[in-house]
Write a structure and sequence with these properties.
Elements lengths: L6 E4 H18 L3 E5 L2 E6 L8 H6 L22 H13 L3
């Protein structure tokens, strides 16, 4: 497979032919680089369709097996550092 070089157009040409250049990118799926003074300024690339989130999640149907309780915490609450800290604060304030 031969590598194609990206088509380059000047900013002036882009301003004149904007609609046609965008249509060309859409039709050919080949990007176009816009330059100013010979330096890259921007690239027009073909739109990439966003995958439907619902279809993506549905594609996993029957591929996952849930084992055990997925709602409850993985360990006991007395092992939670944050709850221990709250208990220490309550005792220090005398609100325990």
């Amino acid at each position: 497979m031969l590598s194609q070089t990206m088509i380059e157009v000047t900013i002036t040409e882009f301003k004149v032919k904007c609609s046609g250049l965008l249509e060309r990118v859409r039709r050919t799926r080949q990007p176009i680089r816009v330059t100013r003074d010979g330096k890259p300024l921007a690239e027009m690339i073909p739109h990439t369709p966003v995958q439907d989130r619902a279809a993506w999640i549905a594609s996993m149907k029957k591929s996952i097996t849930i084992k055990g309780d997925i709602i409850s915490p993985a360990n006991d609450e007395d092992e939670w550092e944050a709850l221990r800290d709250i208990g220490k604060e309550s005792k220090a304030k005398g609100t325990d």
